Amino acid sequence: MSVERQNFPQFFITAPAPCPYLAGMFERKVFTHLIGQEARPLNDTLSQGGFRRSQNIAYRPACDGCGACVSVRVPAARFRWSKSFRRTCAANSDLEMKVVPAKATSEQYSLFRAYIDARHAEGGMADMTVLDFAAMVDESFVDTRIAEYRLPNRQKSAEDGALVAAVLFDVLEDGLSLIYSFFEPELASRSLGSFVILDSIRRAERMGLSHVYLGYWVKGSGKMAYKARFLPQERLTREGWARFEH
């Protein structure tokens, strides 16, 4: 067997399962493993082709007769900072942000658990244990990091310095790929979910990276509707990445 054949990734396809986004539909995924020295360049290539990463697996939808899942990325330098987005950033300007290695902590899991129980109690991640969470964070052969956001530490209350938001992300050749974010559900007025994305766009610019990958936007799914707000954005079509202004 040639070296080229040995290094070429093997792809597999899952059996049909109920779609988590569109009622009455079924999903299938094509996937491959991201392990070893080739994991980083392969993750770059596959991300640009619409794949997402989960632990050591890269996957993308391959559903029969449906193309509702559309890969979305935001061109950081061209992002349109609306008044609403600027207000969101201002409302969270007091938070202290730090990027740390992708290593799960009990503090992160506590916040993740509060977020899931409040926002996605019926979702596929509702039964994730602390070990499942650690696997999601720790198991990576690529450049994975976590941005943590904390309340200011003014030593006035028990809440000072508390972790209120976090985002797990990969550093790609051309951008940042946001894998999963979670935040304190009781701080709804801060719009922390949007803020984490906005701060990631600013981070990509500072790092000289061109895009922030948001995963899949699914037309008709309320769960994914928020991604269409970040404009302009590029969506992966049959002809390649296409710009959408509205």
Break the fold down into its secondary structure elements and pairings.
Elements lengths: L2 H5 L4 E2 L3 E2 L7 E2 L1 E5 L5 H10 L3 E3 L2 E5 L7 E7 L7 H9 L4 E6 L4 H14 L10 H9 L5 E7 L12 E9 L3 E9 L8 H15 L4 E8 L14 E5 L2 E5 L2
Parallel strand pairs: 11-12
Antiparallel strand pairs: 1-4, 2-3, 4-6, 5-6, 7-12, 7-13, 8-9, 9-10, 10-11, 13-14
Describe the structure.
- The protein contains six helices and 14 strands.
- The chain has 246 residues and is α+β, with helices and mostly antiparallel strands.
- Strand 13 and strand 14 form a beta hairpin.
- It is globular, with a radius of gyration of 18 Å.
- The model is unreliable at 1-5 (pLDDT under 50).
Main attributes of the structure:
Aminopeptidase; alpha+beta; 25% helix; 246 residues; 4-stranded antiparallel sheet; 8-stranded mixed sheet; disordered N terminus; globular
Number-wise, the strands total 14
Dominant shape: globular
Order of helices and strands: HEEEEHEEEHEHHEEEHEEE
The CATH H-level homologous superfamily of the domain at 73-214: Gcn5-related N-acetyltransferase (GNAT)
CATH architectural designation of the domain at 73-214: 3-Layer(aba) Sandwich
CATH class category label of the domain at 73-214: Alpha Beta
Q: In whole angstroms, how far apart are the ends?
A: 50 Å
Residues in helices, as a percent range: 25-40%
Strand content: 25-35%
CATH topology of the domain at 73-214: Aminopeptidase
Radius of gyration, in Å, reads: 18 Å
Low-confidence stretches: 1-5
Helix tally?
A: 6
